[in-house]
Specification:
The protein is mainly beta. β8 and β9 form a beta hairpin. The chain is flat and about 50 Å long.
Length: about 170
């Protein structure tokens, strides 16, 4: 179940836009809620979600951002090619030309957060985290700097030996 999705710097979306299945008000009618059990306790979430807005407000871009992220996750980036992202045309200084996609989802009583950030040239960050009783802990993270140097950290229970140096760097 998708619990939350946040996207920024994609097509007509500049600043971060969030879709959330968490109730906005504490007094939300119980008929519209369901309870999920997580390691951090029981959470109330909405049965259904939707979004609306006036024409040209970014609804289509929001849906296309989910499709872009899905395609990028499934198909990756072809070697030597750009990322293929269509970024927001305006300048938003705090985004530094980087687009980001972040998902929180619930599968078999586990809550995960997955996300990545990129520009037209490359992916800068990618991560997968799992909720514990207290916080999200990283299972996997990849960070690439401007020069193309990449560091990958994998939680030890998932790490395998690298063919190059015989070890992975672990979280």
């Amino acid at each position: 179940m998708l619990l939350r999705y946040i996207v920024s710097n994609f097509k007509s979306i500049g600043h971060p836009v969030e879709f959330s299945m968490f109730p906005a008000e504490k007094n939300t009618d119980e008929r519209f809620l369901k309870t999920i059990t997580t390691k951090a306790g029981e959470w109330k979430v909405l049965h259904r979600g939707g979004f609306f807005g006036p024409n040209a407000s970014g609804k289509t871009s929001f849906i296309e951002s989910v499709d872009f992220a899905r395609g990028y996750i499934v198909n990756g980036q072809k070697s030597g090619k750009g990322t293929g992202i269509e970024q927001f045309r305006g300048e938003i200084e705090e985004l530094k030309g980087i687009s980001s996609f972040q998902f929180m989802f619930y599968i078999e009583e586990e809550v995960y957060e997955y996300g990545f950030s990129l520009d037209r040239r490359q992916v800068y960050e990618e991560w997968l985290m799992q909720l514990t009783e207290k916080e999200f802990v990283p299972l996997f993270s990849r960070v690439t700097d401007e020069e193309g140097k990449t560091e990958i950290e994998i939680e030890s229970r998932f790490a395998e030996k690298s063919p190059r140096n015989g070890r992975w760097r672990r979280c």
